[in-house]
Design brief:
It is built from 20 helices and 17 strands. By secondary structure, the protein is an alpha/beta fold. The protein starts with 5 loop residues before the first helix and ends with a helix. GO terms for molecular function: ADP-dependent NAD(P)H-hydrate dehydratase activity; ATP binding; metal ion binding; NAD(P)HX epimerase activity.
């Protein structure tokens, strides 16, 4: 499933019309009929429906929806919130089709009038504003949106809640708080931004016949789901041995945080790594070794000094490295050495992200790929911005950072944004609030380490790792746990069930 900005969606529509040979009227008919079919399946006919329409294609969709619902037996009235001369083109055509079959069209000019008219309805279908919104909403539409939000009735939006921007990074003035949104063709960026996703309510997409080639040409952003995982997940050779399944190294675990490195190592092994070596301080060895007996160990005098020749020689046989889980935030030379002296794929997480920041402009020279896995606070630190801004602009901030420093970014959140150095992006939206616990990020790092070692392409590897992590939490909450009691160790144990669903 592709994810688009407003500008990309306009280009995709244009492609469908100019190269696909599909008339705009056909696309509008398809959009309205498909949304109407979803409403018919979800809501019974004894409801009294109001459809509020504005100008533009969104309003045209509303007229089509009205016609289909009326034909199916719903009691439908259309409320036009703009002057007649603003209904143009295809929308005007479908307005006339509605008038040919119904006299239930009312013109509303102010919010007080709209409130009086809507009090007798059970449901309102929002087809006022489309995806081109940015900035303040003009009156009288602004007050009308406010009226609709305060009505105690079901609210359904068409394509996007009116007033909501399609693109990330734009502050919301006022928008419909929908209970359900039927998105036309492709989700917009704001579906996956923390501050704006709440406006959509429950959502699903409806397809209207746009050629897939239009997406290949105009967007490089997609949502990752089971079919993507199955198409890209590596098959284990029946002659495989521990060496062919990846030799990973996890580095971390200060005296006060030995559990972080245990979680990462166990997750890597449970995800299918052939061999995992834990590099930590001597004092942690009894705790770590008793908790992860399948791993091997490499002792470091501390987690801040430069690597010795003995360390570098031992790490030479490693296929990929994960560092940062519980290392602490003291100034460190270790990360510099991993970047400069070891040509291995490197995943940087947690405390090492703070040690990475001073190296960004001068020392980030690494032949093998670098992956960073920040949460919102860590991304704000790396980019000298604020957490609210990162939440508002996860796509653009991740893309700018990845392109500037030529790294892979896994921006962790309810909707995890995974970005390649070329700007290509994937959304992983599996998981639940049970993952809001200490240690789950360490588990993700371990899973990602294994995926990095076992995939030929890095972006699908990271997407598959995020999918496994989130899907394990979903499975556990659906069966044996709740979002309250779920622990990071549970997520590791749940991976086996997720693998079963992929076979």
């Amino acid at each position: 499933m592709y994810i688009v900005t407003a500008e990309e969606m306009y280009e995709i529509d244009r492609y469908a019309i100019e190269k696909g040979g599909i008339e705009g009227k056909v696309l509008m008919e398809n959009a309205g009929s498909q949304v109407a079919q979803q409403i018919i399946q979800a809501y019974n006919t004894n409801r009294k429906l109001a459809i509020v329409v504005g100008s533009g294609n969104n309003g045209g969709d509303g007229f089509v929806i009205a016609r289909y619902l009326a034909e199916y037996g719903y009691n439908v009235t259309v409320f036009q919130l703009v002057a007649d001369h603003k209904i143009k083109g295809d929308a005007a055509f479908y307005k006339q089709l509605w008038l040919n079959t119904s006299d239930k069209l009312a013109h509303v000019t102010d919010s007080h009038q709209l409130k009086q008219r809507l009090v007798d309805f059970d449901m309102v279908i929002d087809a006022i504003l489309g995806i081109g919104v940015s900035g303040a909403i003009r009156e009288p539409i602004r007050s009308m949106i406010d009226v609709i939000n305060h009505l105690p009735i079901t609210k359904i939006s068409v394509d996007i809640p009116s007033g909501l921007p399609a693109n990330d990074g734009i502050e919301v003035d006022l928008a419909i708080q929908a209970d359900q949104t039927y998105i036309i063709e492709a989700p917009k960026e704001t579906v996956f931004c923390e501050d704006t996703s709440i406006y959509y309510g429950e959502w699903e997409t409806v397809k209207i016949g746009v050629p897939q080639a239009a997406y290949f040409e105009h967007t490089s952003r997609q949502r990752w789901c089971k079919k993507n995982v199955r198409a890209t997940f590596p098959k284990r050779n029946k002659y495989a041995h521990k060496g062919t399944n990846g030799r990973g190294l996890v580095i971390g675990g200060q005296l006060t945080m030995p559990g972080a490195i245990v979680l990462a190592a166990r997750a890597a092994l449970r995800s299918g790594a052939g061999l995992i070596t834990v590099a930590t301080v001597k004092e942690n060895l009894p705790i770590v070794s008793s908790s992860c007996i399948e791993a091997t160990y490499h002792l470091l005098p501390n987690l801040t000094d430069r690597l010795t020749d003995r360390d570098l020689e031992a790490f030479e046989q490693i296929d990929a490295i994960a560092v940062g889980m519980g290392v602490g935030r003291d100034e460190s030379q270790l990360l510099s050495d991993l970047i400069e002296k070891l040509d291995k794929p490197l995943l940087i997480d947690a405390d090492s992200l703070y040690q990475l920041k001073p190296l960004l402009e001068t020392q980030l020279q690494h032949e093998a790929p670098i992956v960073i896995t920040p949460h919102y606070g860590e991304m704000a630190m790396l980019t000298d911005t604020t957490v609210p801004k990162v939440k508002r602009s996860p796509f653009s901030i991740s893309r700018q950072f990845a392109e500037k420093y030529q790294v892979y970014v896994v921006l962790k959140g309810r909707h995890t944004v995974i970005t390649a150095p070329n700007g290509e992006q994937i959304i992983s939206d599996q998981g639940n609030a049970g993952l809001a616990k200490g240690g789950t990020g360490d588990v993700l790092s371990g899973i990602l380490l294994t995926m990095i070692m076992q995939h030929k392409e890095l972006l699908p590897a990271l997407a598959n790792g995020c999918y496994l992590h989130g899907k394990s939490a979903d499975y556990l909450v659906e069966t044996d746990h709740t979002e309250m009691d779920l622990l990071a160790t549970d997520v590791i144990e749940g991976l086996s069930q997720v693998f079963r669903t992929l076979s």
